[in-house]
Amino acid sequence: MSARVLVVDDVLPNVKLLAAKLTREYFDVITAYNGPEALELVRKESPDIVLLDVMMPGMDGFEVCEKIRSDPDTMHIPVVMVTALSDVADRVRGLEAGADDFLTKPVNDIALFARVRSLVRLKMMMDEWRMRESTSGQFGVIERSGTLRNESFERARVLVLEDSLLDLEKITETLKRDHDHVMSANTCAKALERALSDDLDLVVISLTLMNEDGLRLCSQLRSHERTRQVPILLVVDEGDLNRVAKGLELGANDYVIKPLDRNELLARARTQVRRKRYQERLRANYEHSLSMALTDSLTGVFNRRYVNAHLPRLLERAIDSHKPVAILLFDIDHFKVVNDSFGHTVGDEVLKEVSNRASRNLRTFDLVARLGGEEFVVILPDTDVEAAMTVAERLRNQIANSMFKVSADIGEVPVTVSIGVAVGGRLGDSSEGLIRRADEALYEAKRSGRNCVIADPRSDFQGVTAPAPAP
Ligand code: GH3
Ligand code: MG
C-alpha cells in the first residue's frame, strides 16, 4: 500500500509541482488550497503525512498545524512545514510550534523524499503498534505515550565522525548547547568501535572525509543489531546531493549542508533524537502492555490467558514429537478460612508465597500460572506421569512443611494444597480436555482429605501415540 500525502498550498503551481513529484514516486496524493479545506481532508481522508505551506491567507500553516495537533483523532499524523521563509529562526520556530519537520522552497527532491519517507515509516510503525495493542487486549497505552513533540531532545549521547578539525569544532560546539555527551572520531573504524560499545542517540557522519567514505560507516551501523536503530545525520557539501541520496538509501535519516547553519544543525539533531526516544518509548510501552496482558498482577506468574495461548501449542508439539506433557493443577485448601480469619491482605500474601514456592525448583522451561482465585497450574513439558507425581509431591511438601509468614498478629499460618495431575500427548488430546482431567483428579484429592496428590487414571502415558480412550 502506498502512503497517502496531503499537499496544502494556496498557490496552484506549487501544489501541482509537489503533487507531480510525489506521484512519480508512487505516493498517493491529495490536495487542499487553504487551511479549512486541509483540516476537513485531514479528518476525512486520514493521510499518512501532511505537507503544509506556512504563508496562506486566512488560516496560516501554524494555525492548521496546531488544530491537527489538538484533535485526538489526527494528532498522530506527521506534519512537514514547507516554508519560503529565508530566516532560519522562523523555520526552527515552525518546528517548535508543532511540525515534525520542515522543508524550504524551492523544495529539493532528495530532501522531500527523505523527510516524507522517514515520517511515513514512523507513522506506519505506530499504526502497527496500535493494532497489536488492540489485539493484545490493552487499549490506550500507546495513546498515553504522549506525542513525538513532547519527547525530550536534550542530553543525548552523540557521536560525530569528521576529520576536518575546523568543522569538527563547529559541529561539536554547536551540539554541546543541547547535549551532554558529544564524542568524536576521525575514522570510520574508530567511530564504529565507539558506536558498538555505547548507547548512542545520534551519529553525525561527515561525507567530506579526506581519506575515507563516510557512507561506509552508514552501512556498517545499519548492519549491526546494536546500532540498527540509531539515527544518522549526514553532513555534506552542497554539490554532493547524489551521495546524500545514496546515504538515505543505506538508511541515513537526514542531512545538513555545509557551510553549516548552527540552528539548522541543532533543529535537525533534535528531531532525530526525539524520534528515536519516542520509538523506544513506544516499544517499551508495548512490551510492558504485552507482559501485563499475560501475567497475573498480584503474583507475577503467568495468567489464564497465557495458558490458553501456550498450552495448545505445547500439546501440539508433544503429540508431534511423541513426548508427554504434564500439568499439575492445584488449589489451596480451605483458603476461605485464611481470608475470613485474617483478612484479604493476608490472603493475598499467602497467594504470593504459594506462587513463589511453586516457581522455585522448576526447570527453566516449566512454568507456573495462576488460573484465577486460589487455583494454579504448573506445566511440565516432556514429563511423564511418574516424574510429574514426583514434582507434585515435592511441591505439596514445600508448601505444607513450613509455615507461611504473614503480616497478621499471629505471624505465620499453615497452608496446604491439593494437586491433580494429568498427562497428555496422545493423538486427539486437547488442552481443555487435559485441564478437565487434572481438575477431576484435583476434585478427587479434595475428597480424599486434601493436602495430597492424585493422578488422573488416563495419565499412564509414556509417549505412545494411541488415541486417548473415550472419557
Ligand atoms: P477448598 O479446600 O475446598 O478449596 O476450600 P476453599 O476455602 O479454598 O475454597 P472456596 O472456593 O470456598 O474459597 C476460595 C476463596 O478464595 C474465596 C475467595 O474469596 C478467595 N479468593 C479468591 N481470589 C482471591 C484473591 O485474589 N485474594 C484473596 N485474598 N482471596 C481470594
Ligand atoms: Mg481452595
3D architecture notes:
- The chain is α/β, with parallel strands linked by helices.
- It has 3 domains: 1-107, Rossmann fold (3-Layer(aba) Sandwich), CATH 3.40.50.2300; 142-291, Response regulator (Rossmann fold); 302-455, Reverse transcriptase/Diguanylate cyclase domain (Alpha-Beta Plaits), CATH 3.30.70.
- The chain is built from 16 helices and 18 strands.
- It has helices at residues 12-24, 35-45, 61-70, 88-96, 109-135, 141-144, 165-175, 188-196, 214-223, 241-250, 262-294, 304-321, 335-342, 344-359, 385-400, 431-447; strands spanning 4-8, 28-32, 49-53, 79-83, 101-104, 157-161, 181-185, 202-206, 232-237, 254-258, 302-303, 325-332, 367-372, 375-381, 404-405, 412-413, 417-424, 453-455.
- Helix 2 runs parallel beside helix 3 (61-70), helix 7 (165-175) crosses helix 11 and helix 8 packs parallel to helix 9 (214-223).
- Mean pLDDT is 88; it is low at 463-471.
- Bound molecules: 3'-deoxy-guanosine-5'-triphosphate and magnesium ion (MG).
- The site of 3'-deoxy-guanosine-5'-triphosphate (GH3) has 16 residues, from strand 12, helix 13 and helix 14.
- Magnesium ion (MG) binds at residues 331-332, 335, 374.
Main sheet overview: 6 strands, mixed
Count of runs of 4 or more consecutive helical residues: 16
Overall shape:
elongated
- Structural class category: alpha/beta
Give me the CATH architecture of the largest domain, please: 2-Layer Sandwich
Mean pLDDT: 88
Q: Termini separation (Å)?
A: 51 Å
Give the helix level as a range of percent: 40-55%
Spans where pLDDT lies below 50 across 5 or more residues: 463-471
Could you tell me the number of beta strands?
18
User: Any idea how many domains?
Assistant: 3
Which range does the strand content fall in? 15-25%
Q: Could you tell me the radius of gyration in angstroms?
A: 31 Å
Ligand inventory reads: 3'-deoxy-guanosine-5'-triphosphate, magnesium ion
The order of strands across the largest sheet is: 11-13-14-12-17-18
